[in-house]
TrEMBL record:
<dbReference type="InterPro" id="IPR007320">
    <property type="entry name" value="PDCD2_C"/>
</dbReference>
<feature type="compositionally biased region" description="Basic and acidic residues">
    <location>
        <begin position="114"/>
        <end position="128"/>
    </location>
</feature>
<feature type="region of interest" description="Disordered">
    <location>
        <begin position="113"/>
        <end position="132"/>
    </location>
</feature>
<feature type="domain" description="Programmed cell death protein 2 C-terminal">
    <location>
        <begin position="280"/>
        <end position="414"/>
    </location>
</feature>
<protein>
    <recommendedName>
        <fullName>Programmed cell death protein 2 C-terminal domain-containing protein</fullName>
    </recommendedName>
</protein>
<dbReference type="GO" id="GO:0005737">
    <property type="term" value="C:cytoplasm"/>
</dbReference>
<dbReference type="Pfam" id="PF04194">
    <property type="entry name" value="PDCD2_C"/>
</dbReference>
<dbReference type="GO" id="GO:0030490">
    <property type="term" value="P:maturation of SSU-rRNA"/>
</dbReference>
Amino acid sequence: MSNKKQQTKKESSILLGIPDGDIEVDNDAYITKLGGLPVWLEPSKPPSSKVCECRICHNPMYLIFQSYVPLQDSPYHRVLYVWACNRRLCMRKEGSFSVIRSHVVDQAYLKAQRQKEEEKRKKEEKKKAAAAKQQQAFGNGFQLGDLWGNSAGSFGATPTTGGGFGMKKPSTTTAASVVASTPFGAAKKNDTKQDDLIKQMNELGIKDPIDTTNLPQFPGQYLYIDEEKTDNYESMGIDMSRYKEYLDMEKEMLMDIDEGNGETWQGEIYEKQHLPKGVDKQFKKFTERVECAPSQCVRYEFNGQPLFYSALRPKDQQLITSTCKYCNGPRVFEFQLMPNILSILPTTEFAAKESAAVAKPIDAKVKNVDAKTVLDSWNVGMEFGTILVFVCQKDCHQGLIEDVSYMEETALIQYETD
C-alpha cells in the first residue's frame, strides 16, 4: 500500500519542453520546436495569412512555438502553432498573439475507413436483395425487409487525455487500428449550423494563403521532452524582495513617461491594471514551481491544470471558460509557454533591427513627442509572463474528414504586472 502511494506521488502527467539545440533543416511538421518557420501538415494547403497577422499593427507575427501533438484514439495528425508580435507597443492588447490547431487525417485510417464503408454498403445491398427475394416468395402481405434495421454510426467521440507531446510521427498501422473502435465521420450536409461553422473555417483556409518566404522568423530550436520532477519542490524557497523592487521601478518609469509627454498612454495599455500590495502569491507559487526546472520553455498537460503567473481576473475567467466557437463544446487547458522562451529566442535583438530607422532613443521629457514614438524607439520586442493555451476538448474537425483544417484556439496572456 505504501509503495503504491510513493509511486503515485513521483509520477507526473506534466511534460516539459527543454531547449535542445539549433535546427539546421527546418522542414519537419512532426516535431516540437521554438521559432523557425511554420511547417504545414499539408504543404499544398496552407492557412490564410490572417492567422499570423497582428491585429494591432497588421504586420506578420513570428512563430514562437510549433508542436506535433496527436491525441489518443484520433485518426488525425494534429499540430498546434503559436504566433506573437515582436513589437512592444502591441503587447497587452487583444490580437498580438494567435494560436492555430491544424488537422489532417491519417491516410491509412482514411483507406481503412473507406474500405469498411464499402464492405458495409455491399452487405446492405445483399440484405436488400435477399429481402426482395423473400418478399416475392411470400407475397406483398408480409414485408420481410422491415426486420432489417440500420443504425447510425457514432461520430465526434471525445478524445482521451493526449500523450502525443513531443512524439514522432506515428506509423501508418497506428491510426488504422483505431477504425474498429473509434469511428469518425463528416458533418451532415443539410445541417445549416454546421454550414455556418464551415464558413468560419474557410476564413482560415487557403484564401490569401501564407507565403512562408515572406514571414519574419527566429532561429529554430529543438525541444527535448521530459517529465516534470518536483521531488524537492516543498523544500525550496525563493527571495521575492527583488521582484517587489522591480514593480516599484517599473511604476516610477511609467509615471515619468506620462509626465514628460503630457499624455496618458498608460491608461490605454495598462487599463484597470493594479500593482499588487506586496508580493503576488500566485507569482510566488509560479516561481517556486519553475525553479524545479528553470530551463523549461513549455509545460504540457492536456486537460490538466495550468500554472498561473498571476491571479485570474473576471474577464480572464470568462475567456478560458468560453465554449469552442466551432462545435460549442467545452474548452480545456493543453499547454503553456514559459518566460524562458524570451531568453532563448532573440526577441530584443530582432526588435532592435526592425526599429533601426530610429537613430537613438528619444528623450521622453522632450516636448511635442507623442508616447507612441517614445515606445517605438524603445522597442525591445515581445513580453509575457506566460501564454496559456486552451483548446476544444472534443478536438472537433470541421468539414469533410479528408479536408485539412485550421481552427483558431484561445490563448490567455499573463504579464509581469498583472
